[in-house]
Amino acid sequence: MLVPLSWLLEYAPLPEPVDPIEVARRLTAVGLEIEGLEHVGQDISGVVIARVLEITELTEFRKPIRYCKVTTGPGAGGSGGSSPRASTADDERYVICGAANFAVGDLVALALPGASLPGGFEIAARKAYGRVSNGMICSAAELAIGEDHSGIMVLPPDAPLGADFIEYAGLRDVVLDVNVTPDKGHALSVRGIARELASAYAVGYTDPAGADDPAEAPNSEVYQASIADPSACDRFALREVRGVDPDRPTPLRMKIRLARAGMRSVSLAVDVTNYLMIELGQPMHAFDRSRLSGPIVVRRGADGEKLETLDHVVRQLDPDDILITDASGPISMAGTMGGLATEVSEESTDLVIEAAHFSAAGTARMSRRHRLFSEASARFERGVDYELPLRASAKAAAMLAELGGGTVIAGYSLATAPIEPVEISIPDELPDRVAGVAYGPEVVVRRLREVGCVVSVDGSKLKVGPPSWRPDLTDPNDLAEEVIRLEGYDKVGVAMPRAAAGKGRTATQRLRLAIARELAGAGYVEVLSSAFGAAEDFDRMQLPAGDVRRRAVRLANPISDKEPLMRTSLLPSLFKVAVRNIGRGFADLALFELGQVFRVRSDAGAGSEGLAAAPILAVDHRPTKDEEALVEAALPDQPRLVGCLLTGKFEAAGWWGEGRPANLYDAIEAAREVLRTSRVPYTVRAGQKEPWHPGRCAEFVVSGSGSESGSGSGDGSVEPVVLGYAGELHPRVITAFRLPARTCAMELDLTAIEALAAAQPAEQAPLISGYPVAIQDVALVVDDSVPAEDVQAALVDGAASAAPAGAASLLEDVRLFDVYSGEQTGEGRRSLAYALRFRAPDRTLTDEEVAVARDAAVAEASRRTGAVLRSG
What we know:
Number of domains: 6
Oligomer: single chain
CATH superfamily of the largest domain: Bira Bifunctional Protein, Domain 2
Number of helices: 21
Radius of gyration: 39 Å
Largest sheet: 7 strands, antiparallel
CATH topology of the largest domain: BirA Bifunctional Protein, domain 2
CATH class of the largest domain: Alpha Beta
Helix content: 25-40%
Shape: elongated
Strand content: 25-35%
Distance between the termini: 85 Å
Structural class: alpha+beta
């Protein structure tokens, strides 16, 4: 927010001389971030108020040129000059001007030869269009007090002729750039910042809104209003001003202050409401009374309603939108932007002034839904003083009547809804305990009253009623923070806390780090994708109706209306990251992410998209077990997953070769890498799970024995636990997400893996035999439907069975190194070639021992899988 220092000093008079740097420092010290300050008007000099005496139209040029005779009249040379004297020839001069919006007799701002204008522009007498111009008649833009380039700035008739224009208009000022944080909505106004400034300097403060509501009563002659939805609005006030002269200009000083605050001058009615919005923090809107029909009602939107707003955009309204309506339908998006049909125009004479207190959350959601952000919505969504509408509208009506020549209709129309008063109990020593500084009860009470709180003392307890303009004060610690910041954060001592001796990372943290390191070493790049998604993602992933991944948590106030759900899978987020990178020319991707997903618990009800609201716990004590249980019950399941995505080339092309495209086996190997790192024994089998291709998907399972997630069957066996899937994505999923063909992905349940890893015995360093290894290759022919994993498991078990009782298996390792199918294997069959490594820890194996172990392994594979030893 941009705010002129002179405006603040009207309500917080500081002792002279005022140092702007110190003002910025003190405001920053109390929590308002001053991002910069600018000295404005300091580079302007030599501009005086002059009267136009004659205008000669020069018609021989392409564009209209006027040769004007002006005078600076008596007292030329600035305010504080000599006593009035008669105008002389020295006061008169001729200037060339291209504007046509002024007439003979008008008062204008004249830059004399030798004057300096913003940007270092020097004025000198010069010859142009065959005439000599002794100065320049200035526009608002040329004096850096607005963006109006359309014509010359015509001054009021009572402006002092010959006076220094800089002093008259108050051009020299300091503008503060205040970054108002979301929790300090009261500081989005001169009223709020001046209160903080007065507190920082310990000077008196004058509330520009006045202390009390005007001593008036409701009047049925004033346009009537009502509130249909109290959750959308709890204060709605209307006042009327009739007979306003639409040609009356906005006062110069008001224009200048609006320009300094970053707002352009529009018309008197709009400028007055904008001026008071900046001064008081209360957004207001002026309606043309002649364009209204029927009583005004504040309500939510209805299906199919539309509104053309002041920016000439026709907006499709949402049932959750907060609207101001009359008999014709919506006339304004409450707290955001008015409608075009009822705007104040150049012919408007009878005005209805609206001031209200709208729901902060409702206004914020509506503003984001329509991507419509305004100065009004910025204030409402941070919290506006709910007791201000009557006072602000009264001030607006009075200003319009005074400046526009209108008549205020006595009284007002006011619709209200009950607001529960807030009372906070706080021990008077709480700020001392929080900050570790001895403030004392007197300081605590004084500072809270400076903020505007009503404080009653009951022994060592304080009962505090926050002011209506501070909706952010809801908790004892909020009040403690107010005392601490006003007393100064610099008084809080700096002491490094003594860190307790730690034990390093936990086993779970070490496992996650190891998995991330292994995947990165395999060529994957870690990403942190968005935790939000949309219901359309479930359809694009081809998820069936009962899939657990459809049980998503819906956010009450999403950052984007297009993604209102918490994600239930990492894959859609990874898909979107991939699409974004591909769109920027990075087509070869190997991405991975370790992150949480959020799923509604199975006991929350079928199809539930939300959970019960979690209780807001006190912060002055540790939560009890019952309170922890309430919070836990309101939370969704939050398992941690690990996911990978591959597309394009997995091995880049170069001088070493053409490279290799990523395929489903790379995704499967990524899953194997995760499970190997975690030391969890697993089995791979053919799987079928959306969004993977049903014929190109591997399922990773682990025996349920010893796992809490395993479920027993009637025969005492334990169902295996599925850890996740890897493979190639289904073509329809690839098309829906606009991914490249043959994109592959992997997703495993890392929470389940961590639990299984924790149950594994401590890893022992392997015993390395110093005796030679014996390698035997075997090629086994099996049906295509037989998984290679089953054949390998049978080989391991068979070799182990050949070992003497109590002795370790001689089979050290088994590796699949070739898969072949063709005429020699027969239709529907394939050959799997394995390398078997045999070694004994205490001796060199004989050929006979190796042959016995090999034959036992082959025999067991034949018995369990129907494998036949391939010959030739």
